[in-house]
Amino acid sequence: MQTNTTETQFIKTLRTALGIGQESAGARAAKIFTDPKDPSPEQAAIVKTIKSRRDKDHMALLHHLSREAVPLNLNVIPVKDKAQVSKAIANLVKETGPEWGAKKSVVQWDHPLVNALDLKTALKDQNVPVHTAAFDTTGMDDLTRSKARDRVRRQMIDSYIGVTSADFCLADTATLVMKSRPKEARAVSLLPSIHVAVIGKEQMLTNLKELYALLKYDPETREAELLPHHMTLISGPSKTADIELVMVHGAHGPRKLYLYVITG
Amino acid sequence: MSHDAATKKYAQNAASAIKDEILQKALNKIQSGLGKATALSYQNLDEGPDLRLAAHDIREKTINNLDVVLTRLAAKIRENGGRVYFARTGEQAVEYCLKIARQHHVKQVVKGKSMVTEEIRLNPAFEARGIEVNETDLGEYIIQLAGEKPSHIIAPAAHKTRQQVGRLFERKLGVPYTEDPPELTRIARKALREKFLTADMGISGCNLACAQTGHITVVSNEGNIRMATTLPKVHVAIMGMERVVPNLEDHDILFRLLSRGAAAQKLGGCVSYIGGPAGPEFPDGPEEFHLVILDNGRSRILADPKFREILCCIRCSACLNVCPVYGKIGGHAYDATYCGPIGAVLTPLMEGMNQAKDLCLGESLCGACQQACSVNIDLPRMLLELRYRLAYGDDQWETQPVSVAEKTIHQAWAFLAGHPALYRAFLRTFALGQKIFPTSRGMITKMPGPGAGWTRSRDIQPLSQTPFRKRFKKLNAKKAHG
Amino acid sequence: MTHATLFIQCIVDGMYPEVGEAMVSLFQRLGITMDYPENQTCCGQPSFNAGYRKEAAKAAKHYIETFEDSETIVCPSGSCVSMVRHHYPELFENEPAWKARAIAVGKRTFELTEYLVDVLHIENTGAYYDGTITYHDSCHLKRYLGVAAQPRTLISQVRGATFVEMKGCDTCCGFGGAFSTKYPDISTAMVREKVKNILDSGADAVVGCDMGCLMNIKGYLTRNTLNVRVMHIAQLLAGKKAGAV
Ligand code: SF4
Predict the structure, then answer these.
(1) Does B26 touch chain C (CB under 8 A)?
(2) Topology alike, domains C2-118 and C124-238
(3) What is the pLDDT of residues A51-105, one digit of tens each?
(4) Contacts of B321 (CB under 8 A, 6+ apart)
(5) What backbone torsions phi and psi does residue B167 show, to the nearest 5 degrees?
(6) Which one-letter DSSP state was computed for residue B290?
(7) Cα separation of C219 and B457, whole Å?
(8) Which CATH superfamily is domain C124-238 in?
(9) Mind listing the pLDDT tens digit for each residue in A12-29?
C-alpha cells in the first residue's frame, strides 16, 4: 500500500513549487486553521442566536422552510403530534404502491422519534410489514455481521417507503441533515421510492452557515468529532435536467420526499 | 499532431459546431438560462455578490498553504479509517485504483460524474481489464452509451436532443422508442438501479474537501453519487490536489458559491460528506474508503506564480455558461478534458502550450468569464499570460515561440509606434496602396493574407485619405460654439 | 476653463476620422478646449493582446512620453484606455521608474463617456437625434473600466431619440482584435448573433463607444446590406437638429 515516501515526496514537491520550507508548516497551519474551542465573535454569535431560539422563532423558520420547499418538490407537512404522523403514513401506504415489486413494505431507522410512531401498529390492518434497518453488532463475528448487513440491505431494496428522522433541517435551502449513526442506515433514505422524514420543529436551523457553526463551535453538538465519517444533506427529491435541460424529478433515489415537522 | 494541424482541427471543429443547429440551440439554452440565472443568484447571496471576492481569498490562502492543508486532510481521513494515496501522475492514480479493484475482485464499477477521472482516462483502463464501468449521472450515462465525450462540465449531454436520446435508448437498451424526458429518465433509472445494486466498487470525484474535518464532499442533484458512494463495498474517490479548503467556515462560503456557479442553486440537491469507511458497527455504507489525491501536472502550475491562480478553480462551470466562444463552438471543439474558459487556460498548462495554443488564442478576451466565475478568477489575465509565453517561448514550460513571422510584424509595428514620422508615412502609404482591394459602396470587400479571414464575412472600412491627425488643426481653429 | 488632450486611437485616426471630428465639435459645444499631440501613435494593445509584450512596452513608452505632460487625456475608446490604465503597469513590472510613470499617466487617461459623466458631471450634451437607438456595451469598457451607466445616461438625454436595450447588449460582438482574423468562423458566428439582436431590438441605429466593435458590426451589416446605422457615441452626442446652429 501507500508508502510514506510517496506522500513525503508529494508534499515536498508542493513545498518546492511554493518556494517554502517545512519549518514554517506548523506556524502556517496554526494560522489558517480555526480552532473549534476558540470561535470568532461572528461564529460565537451564530451559536448564541441558535441557542436562544424560542417556539415562535422555530415556527418562523418552519414558515420559511415551507416557502423554500415548494420549488424543490419537497412536501413539508407541519403536524401537531406523532399520532398525526403515524396516521398520515398509514394513509400514504394506502394510497400508493411500490415502484419495483408487487408487495408493499416499509423500512425505518431505529430512532426514538421514528420508533415512537409505532408504524407496525399503524400499518397492521393493511398487513404491510415494517422493517427496522438495524442490528446490534456487539459480539458478532464477521460472517454473522455480513449476513445481517445483507438482510438489512435486502429490506431496504424491497421496501418502497423509508422512514427516517434527521439531525437538522435548514430552512433556507429546505435541506435535511443526516449524520450517519449505527442505528440509522444510510440507504433507508436512498433505496425506497418514497422517503418520509420526521423531525421536531426545534431541529430547524436557518442555513448551512448555522449548521457549520453548531457542528464546530457548540460543544454539545460537536460530540467527539466535528463530523462523523459520513453525513448527508438532502434538499428535496432527486432531480435531473440532463435531457434538453428539462427538469425531471426522480432520477435516482426517492422520487417523493415528505417531511413531517412536529410543532407540539 | 503538428501545430498547424492542431489549429486546422480546432478551426474545423469550431466551424462544424457552428453549423450544427441542434448544438446551437442547446448552447443557447444553457447560456440564456443557466448563465443568466447564475448571475442573478450571486446578487441574491446574503453577503452580496462580493462574497466571490472573499471566496477567492480563501482559495488563494489554501493554495499557498496546500502542503499543510493536504497533510491535515490525509491525517484526518486516516484517523477515520480511510486510506489516502498521493498520486504524482494520472497513471499512478489509475494503477492504484486498478490494484484495489484486483484486491476485491471487482467486476463492476458504478461512477459518479467526475472530470478528474476523464482527465486520467480511468474508464478505458478499467475496461481494458474486463471491468465494466457504468457512468451513473444521466447525462454521462447517455454519452457513455453513445460512445462520446462530455461537452459541458455539468451538463455533459447538453448537445443531445430528446429524440437522439430516445433512439439511443431504443438501440442500446432495447426499449420502445420514446422522446418524453420523464419516461427516458425512468428507463435510465431502472437500468442503473440494477447496476447500483450489483456493483462491487463505487468511484467518485470530489467537489470540495474540508481538511479540518477530514471529509470530501460530493454533490449531485440526481442522487446518483450518493448511490455510488453508499451501496458498493468499496468507495474510491479521486480528487485534484487543489480541491480542498481548510475550515468548515470556508467550506460554507465555497460550497454555496459552487452550487450557484454550477446550477444557480442555493445548495446542490444531494451532498455527501465522506471521511472514511463505515465501521463494523454500521449497518450499511462502504467498508473501505480510499482517497486518491492527484497532482498530474498541478504542482508545475503551482510553481509558476503567474498561473497559480488557476488552481483556485472549483470547476463550477459558470464560465462556460457565459463565454461567447463556448456559446458558439460547444465543448467538443476544444478537444480536451476541460473546455470553455477554464479549459482554455488549464489545457495549455496541462497538455502543452504549443499543442493547445488555439484554446488560449481563440478567445476574444471579453472578460465575461471572470465576472461569472464563482471565485472571481482572472481568466483573461492568464489567457494573456499564456499568449506572452507563446510569443517568446518559455523553457520552463518547454514552449516554442509560436510564430516568427508574427513576431516580426509586431517588432516592425513597435518600431513605427516609437517613430511618429515613420508611423505617419507608413499609414499614408497604406492608404494609397489599399486602392488595389475591391470595394463596394466605399467598403473593402476582399483582402489578402491575414485580412482574408475578416473579409470572408465582413466588409472593412478603408483608411481615410485625410486622417484625423491632418484634420485637427483646422477643426480646432474654428471658434467654439457659444 | 476645461481642457482636454485628445488621444485618438489608430482606428479612429485612420479609418474613422469623422468620429474624431464629432468629438471635437462636441467638446467645442461644451466649451472644452483641446490639444492634440501630433506625435501620438498606437497604444500597443494589438501587440499586448497577442502576447508580444516587449513590443507593446515600446509603444507604451512612446505613449507615456507623449502624454505625460498632459493633465487630462481623453480617448474615444474603452479598450485603449484599459490598456493604458491596467496593462501598462503590468508591462513595467521590472522597470519601477517606468511603472510609476505609467500609473501616473493611466490615472489621467479617460474614456470619453466617463470623462463627460464622472469627471465633468455632464449628462445633457444638448444633442438631438431623430430615431430609435440601441447601445452595444464594449467588453473592455464595461468589464475593465466599469463604464456602462455613463453612456446610457448621456444617451437618455438626447432629445428626439428613443432608446431601446437589445438582448445581450453586453455580449461580445466577436471582434477581439486579431481573434477576428485568426478565427473568423467563431468571430463571424458571434457578430451574426450581435447583429440579430440589434435588428430584433427594432432600433434604426446602434451606438457604441469603441470603433473596434463598431467596425466589426458595421462590416457585417454592410456585407449583408442590412440597413442599420452605426454610430460612435461622439457622433450621436455631437448631433444637432437640422438647421440648428
Ligand atoms: S474558472 Fe471559475 S467559473 Fe470557471 S469552472 Fe473554475 S471556478 Fe467555475
Answers:
(1) no
(2) yes
(3) 999 999 999 999 999 999 999 999 999 999 999 999 999 999 999 999 988 899 9
(4) B30, B31, B34, B35, B38, B372
(5) -65, -35
(6) E
(7) 8
(8) AF0625-like (3.40.50.10700)
(9) 999 999 999 999 999 999
Residue of B nearest to C61 (CA): B418
How far, in Å, are A259, B11, B35 from residue B324 at the CA level? 42, 16, 11
* Helices A208-217 & A41-51 angle (0-180, nearest 10): 100
Last residue of a domain, one of B296, B317, B339: B296
CB-based contact (8 Å) between A110 and chain B?
A: no
Q: Helices (DSSP H) in A102-223: which residue ranges? A: 112-115, 119-122, 142-158, 208-217, 219-222
B18 touches chain C (CB under 8 A): yes
* E strands present in chain A: 74-79, 106-108, 130-132, 161-164, 168-170, 175-179, 194-200, 204-205, 230-234, 239-240, 248-249, 256-262
Asked if A153 and A164 touch (Cβ cutoff 8 Å), the reply is no
Which residue among C54, C56, C220 sits closest to B458, beta carbon to beta carbon?
Answer: C220
Average pLDDT over chain C reads 96
**Percentage above 70 pLDDT, chain A:** 98
Per-10-residue mean pLDDT, chain B, length 482: 77 94 91 93 95 98 98 96 97 98 97 94 96 95 91 84 94 95 95 96 98 96 95 98 98 97 94 96 96 98 98 96 96 93 97 95 95 97 98 96 94 95 92 89 88 92 94 82 42
Q: Whole-angstrom Cα distance, residue A75 to residue B135?
A: 30
Helical axes C53-67 vs B379-392, angle rounded to 10°: 110
The pLDDT tens digits for A181-191 are 999 999 999 99
Within 8 A by CB and 6+ apart from A123, the residues are A89, A90, A93, A106, A129, A130
Q: Do A240 and B61 touch (CB under 8 A)?
A: no
Would you say the C-alpha torsion B59, B63, B64, B65 has a positive or negative sign?
positive
DSSP 8-state assignment for residue B397:
G
Q: Which of the four CATH numbers 3.40.50, 3.30.1390, 1.10.8, 3.90.1010 does domain C2-118 have?
A: 3.40.50
Residues of chain C in contact with residue B420, where contact means CB-CB under 8 angstroms, are 38-41, 62
In angstroms, what CA-CA distances link C78 with A231, B372, B444, C75, C137? 51, 21, 26, 8, 10
Q: Which residue of C has its CA nearest to B441?
A: C222
Based on the fold, state whether residues B288 and B412 are members of the same structural domain: no
Q: Where are the alpha helices (DSSP H) in B65-161?
A: 66-79, 90-103, 115-119, 122-128, 138-146
The count of structural domains within chain B is: 2
B374 C-alpha to ligand 1 centroid (Å): 6
- What does DSSP assign to residue A181? B
For residues B26 and B151, is the Cβ–Cβ distance under 8 A?
no
pTM given for the model:
0.95
- Domain of A158 in residue numbering reads as 36-262
Residue A248 belongs to a domain with what CATH number?
3.40.50.10420
DSSP state of B394: B
Domain ranges, ordered by start, for chain C: 2-118, 124-238
B152 domain-assigned: yes
Are B389 and B399 contacting, i.e. CB atoms less than 8 angstroms apart? yes
User: Are A181 and A206 spatial neighbours (Cβ–Cβ below 8 Å)?
Assistant: no
Q: Specify the 3-state DSSP secondary structure of C162.
A: strand
**Cβ proximity of B218 and B207 under 8 Å:** yes
Q: Kindly give, in sequence order, each residue whose CB lies less than 8 Å from that of residue B63, ignoring residues fewer than 6 positions away.
A: B242, B302, B308, B311, B312
The boundaries of the domain holding residue B422 are: 404-481
**Cα A260 to Cα A238: distance, rounded to the nearest angstrom:** 18
Residues 6 or more apart whose Cβ sits within 8 Å of residue B440: B459, C222
Subunit contact B384:C16, Cβ cutoff 8 A: no
Joined together, the cell numbers standing for residue A210 give: 448555522
Tell me which residue has cell 470553455: B340
